[in-house]
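Interim report, section 4.2 (structural modelling).
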Amino acid sequence: MIAAVVIPAFDLRAALRLRPALEAVPAALAPLPGSEPLLGSVTAAAEAKGVRPGMRLGEALATCSELVLVEQDPATAEQAWEEVLRRLEDAGFAVEPAEAGTVYFETRGVERLYGGLEPALKRALKAVGPAWEARAGAAERRFAALAAASVARPGQALIVSDDRTRRFLAPLPLSLLPLERDRYEELEELGVRTIGQLAGLPGAAVAERLGPDGRRAWSLARGERDGRVVPRRPAEPLHETLEFPEAVGQELTLRRGLGVLVDRLLARPDRTGRPPRKLALWARLAGGASWRRTITLREPTADPARLRAALGPKLAELPAPALKLRLEVVELAEGTGEQLELVRAEGEVLQGRLKEGLRQVRAAVGAGGVATVVEVAPWSRIPEARALLVPRDD
Amino acid sequence: MVTDTGSTRTAGAARRLNAPRPALVEGHADGTPRRVNRQGVAALREEWRIVDRWWTEEPVDRRYFDLVLETGENVVVYRDGESGAWFTQRA
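Predicted structure of the assembly:
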C-alpha cells in the first residue's frame, strides 16, 4: 500500500514555531513582497472568522479586523521540513516528499518492521512529532492515500481498502484534486461539487471541457492508478556556518565570508572526496527573517574557485544585511574519475607545507586557533568594526 | 590520544579584530590621562572624538588619546562617554 502523511498549513506552522501564542489567534501568512496580495495558510481561529487561504489581503482584513499577518519564513520552513523527513527516514520510512507538509512512502517493508500497517502509520506519526498535528492515510493509490490523510483527524491514521476507494472518495470535496482555482469554480458552476460527481461524468466530456489536467483529475477521482512512490536519496547533513558579530550588508565582505565557507566545506572529511552537485546558501537576516537560495551546478565540482564563482552572484540578492551565513550541501555527486595532473602546480608544495604547519598549530591550541582576517568595513571610524577574525579549520 | 586544549572558542563564530581592552587610567581635571596602567604619561600626541551609531541601541561616544608613556611606549586609550570606563585599543 501507499501511505501519505499530511501536515496541514505546514508553512504557517513552521513560521509560528517561534511565536506559538499566535496559533490560538486569527493569523495568516502574509503575501511575499512583490507578489499578488493573496493570503497564505491561515490558523483555525482565522478560518472560524471567515478568512480563507488564497483570499485577497484587503478582503481578509475587512472580514477579520484583528487578523495577525505572519511574515513568510521559507528558509525556516524548509529546514523544519527537512528535519521531519530525516526523522521519518531515521524510523525506516523511505519517503518521497511531494511538497512541504505532504510526504508519501511505501508501506510494504515497514509493515513487517512494525508488525502491521496501522502500527507502521502510528510510528510514522510519532516520528513526525505531536507538535505538527500530522495525519496519515493509506490506500492502494497515492491520491486515495492523500485524500484519507487530508480528512483524518490530527494524530489519526485512516486506511482505505482498494474495494472501498471509490465509495470513500465520492463524498469528498473537489478541492482535494490537483486543479487550478478557476477549474474548481467552473465545476461548481456546473453543479459538480464532489469527487464522486466528477467521477460519474464521461471521461471524454471532461477532457474536452477541462483539458488534460481535468482528465487527470477525473482519473484520480475514479481511483485509477496514479504512479508509484519513488523514495528520495537522503540528503547529506553537510553544512558550514559563519556568524558575524554584527549585520553585514557589504557584498565584498559576504563574498569573503563565502570563500571561507567554501574552503571549510570542501575540507570536511565526511564528504569523502565526492564533489557537491547541489548547494544551498542560507542567511539569517538582521530583523530575524531568513533567506535561502539553492544552486544546482551544471557539473559537480570540488574546485573552490568555481564554487565561489557559482555561488557569489547569489549574495547580491540578499534583501537585508546578514547576521549569519551558511553553506549547505544539498546533494553530493558520486566520486568522479578526475584526471590527476602530471606535473604539480607551482606553489602546491609550499601550500602543502603551510597546511601541515597550520594543522599542527590547531592541534596545539584547539579548534578556532587559526583564523583569517576578513575586512568588513575598513573605512569605519570605529576600530573594532573594521575587520573580523574568521576561524579556519580546513 | 588527544589532549584537551581547554579552548572554549566556538569554531564557527567570527570574532572582532582589535577589540578594546579595559585600561587603568588616572586623569587630569580636564579629562586628559595622567597615568595609564600605572605608567606616567610623557606626552599627548593627539586627541579626537568619535560619536557614531547614536540611532542604535548601542551608541558609540568615545574620546580617544594617542599617548607616549614615560617608558617610551606608544598607546591609544579612550574614555567611553556612556559608561565612563577607559579602554586601550590600536587606532
